[in-house]
Here is the input.
Amino acid sequence: MKIAFAGKGGVGKTSLTAWVADWLARNGHNVWMVDGDTALSLGQASGLSIEELPMPLIQREDLVRERIHEGGFLNLNPDVSDLPKSLARDIPLGAPPVSGIVPGYKKLLVMGAVTNAGGGCACDANALLKALLAHVVMESNDWVLVDLEAGVEHLGRGTVSHVDGLVVVSEPSMRSLQTGAEVGRMAQDLGLDNQVLVLNRHIQGTLPVLDGLPEYSISIPPLPGLIERQMTDASVLALPEQPMLDGIVLSILKGLFKDAV
Here is the structure.
């Protein structure tokens, strides 16, 4: 299954991507994590130090020249089948695997912004991003989680047109929910109706009625363990609230895929 995570900046979609990936791996699933956000924080959220982070693909001028200008011609459909394994960084589990389960792996691909990678832009780096993202999403038999650039531009350019489900992440604020509603509408225009709304840092209150917001919604309350940690550690894994988060992740996956987990 392939899932994209989208929403306004700062709402917690990277944290949620890390939580879902870790739950899947601890439950025996292999997971590819694609960091397509310019903030490039998915690796740190998953426990890597800054020194351990790989260079974003969009900055790999050597690969761009090799694949896009192969043979002296501009190739906008390069062969990237070997790149996922060679570029991926292994991510350790954030907690022990489920008892009796052989854990899966987590592999991180740091791509950089993929807002233009779905079409329209023919620049060299984005052509390589587009080809690699399409290969991972369409060819992999593992779970693929794509942490998208904040906002809605990636949807307008069709980046998520081949994923199986969309998690729209929002805070309990009108501006954030309006962005979420626009994300939902644009995804529906691409034929992606399988959506879940995750309302992060939500204490109470009725949601406003906004056209485009996914009907199925799940709330995550403020997490004291994360609040206490976030000034000293970028990782969002192995929090005191782990059991509650595991239940929320399972609800999200069942909301999207019913019997797939």
DSSP finds nine helices and eight strands in the chain.
